[in-house]
From TrEMBL:
Origin superkingdom: Bacteria
PANTHER family: OLIGOPEPTIDE-BINDING PROTEIN APPA (PTHR30290:SF9), PERIPLASMIC BINDING COMPONENT OF ABC TRANSPORTER (PTHR30290)
Source organism of the structure: Candidatus Aphodomorpha intestinavium
InterPro entries linked to this entry: SBP_5 (IPR039424), SBP_5_dom (IPR000914)
Pfam families given in the database record: SBP_bac_5
Protein name per UniProt: Solute-binding protein family 5 domain-containing protein
Sample GO molecular function, one term: peptide transmembrane transporter activity
GO biological process, one term: peptide transport
Domain Solute-binding protein family: from-to ranges: 6-315
Keyword line: Signal, Transport
Keyword Signal belongs to the record: yes
Record-stated family: Belongs to the bacterial solute-binding protein 5 family.
Length: 400
């Protein structure tokens, strides 16, 4: 960790392309964490840089060296990044000579592909008008479904959210199916567990509660949880229920979801004040526990959710603690084989679907707009690794 060690216990070099790692205990999420969260850096560049000083070396950070089919050539902050092909790439010479990445306003990105200014653009707005325009222009649109889920975080320390009935009421009260259809134009998917529907670990649909939009059911559950109605207003312990709802700025869909949630909860007698804030401030407030409700996106390729749902989880912003959940999370990490782990995580998902520590709202897909003639892109097969086969992309409409 200090950057001074010449070797690390448990890591052995087998050959130029293989290392063996020995751990003290079986850790089920190990392969995911090594593959997704650990980077190998070139010794000939970083070998003499103390680890504590690495973040200060902008001269090196702005000239990255990787192992992919393209190599870094030029970078102009806020304008572009240029990559040139690496002819000696291990999996074959790339068919495209150069890639240029430019930041572009989301409103003009699709039109830029149609006009020929761009060959590809990723959009989070899959509105019908834009899709029709792109289709008529001969563009291909690949759907990038993410494993992340947009959640409404309920602070379980708040007096209202200390029973599962009250938390279930929130799931019934929010028109999540309307959000998926109207805000995401049908390219959102209502989620009812801690996992996206096509992620391994997700239980069969008939084993979970779909929490169809039902304001009257929500009211019944709130009364069962100890609340009462005076007229149309919900009261708890003799006081009208009011909630502060924070959410991060910078995402139009999040802002629209917040408006829907505010109105839906008003419909069941709860007054909600909404406060948008910059992401870092939002997350800091969540970590402090000084909030009523918040919104966050969470997800992982591996189904281990220790960081979110364990009593001591680093991102347990909902302040949820349940011995059964803690035990299932520990059990799921005792095995490496997916066949042994999956039933454990399915049980976890079914249990969380019932106790509802926070409300899963929706997962979503982005659209990858591909210009006519650009071939070989297979991003929708693995949204998390959309550039996985970059060396095989090519233009079929270029003159020989």
């Amino acid at each position: 960790r200090s950057g001074e060690a010449d070797s690390i216990s448990g890591i052995n070099i087998i050959d130029d392309h293989t290392i063996a790692i020995t751990t003290e205990d079986v850790y089920g999420a190990f392969f995911y964490q090594i593959g997704e969260q650990v980077s190998i850096v070139p010794e000939h560049i970083w070998g003499d840089v103390p680890a504590a000083e690495a973040h200060e070396r902008t001269d090196l950070l702005h000239n990255p060296v990787g192992t992919g089919p393209f190599k870094f050539t030029e970078y102009e902050p806020d304008q572009y990044v240029i990559l040139d092909k690496f002819a000696d790439y291990w999996n074959g010479e790339p068919k495209i000579d150069q890639m240029v990445f430019k930041p572009m306003n989301a409103e003009i990105g699709p039109s830029a592909v149609v006009s020929g200014e761009a060959d590809m653009h990723q959009t989070s707005s899959m509105n019908p008008e834009t899709i029709n325009m792109l289709t008529e222009a001969g563009c291909e649109i690949q759907e990038l479904w993410w494993t992340s889920i947009r959640y409404l975080i309920l602070n379980n320390d708040h007096p209202l959210f200390q029973t599962k009935e009250a938390r279930q009421a929130m799931a019934y009260a929010i028109d999540r199916y309307g959000i998926a259809e109207n805000i995401f134009y049908g390219y959102g998917r209502v989620e009812n567990t801690c996992y996206a529907a096509d992620q391994w670990g997700t239980p069969p649909a008939d084993q979970i509660n779909p929490y169809e939009y039902n304001p009257e059911k929500a009211k019944e559950l709130l009364v069962a949880a100890g609340c009462e109605y005076q007229g149309d207003t919900l009261y708890l312990n003799g006081e009208p229920v009011t909630l502060d709802f924070i959410h991060p700025t910078g995402n139009a869909n999040v802002e629209k979801i917040a408006v829907v949630i505010q109105q839906n909860l008003k419909d069941i007698g709860i007054d909600v004040s909404v406060t948008p804030m910059e992401m870092a401030s939002h997350n800091a407030l969540c970590a402090s526990g000084d909030f009523d409700m918040a919104m966050i996106g969470n997800g992982s390729v591996d189904p281990d959710m220790t960081w979110i749902y364990a009593s001591d989880g680093s991102s347990n912003y909902e302040n949820f603690s349940d011995p059964h959940v803690d035990e299932l999370l520990k059990e799921g990490l005792k095995y490496v084989d997916q066949e042994k782990r999956e039933p454990i995580y399915q049980e976890l998902a079914i249990y969380l679907n019932d106790v509802m520590p926070m409300v899963p709202i929706v997962s979503w897909c982005d659209g990858l707009i591909i210009a006519p003639g650009l071939e070989g892109v297979k991003a929708e097969e693995e949204a998390a690794y959309m550039f996985a086969n970059l060396e095989n992309w090519y233009f079929s409409n270029l003159a020989e």
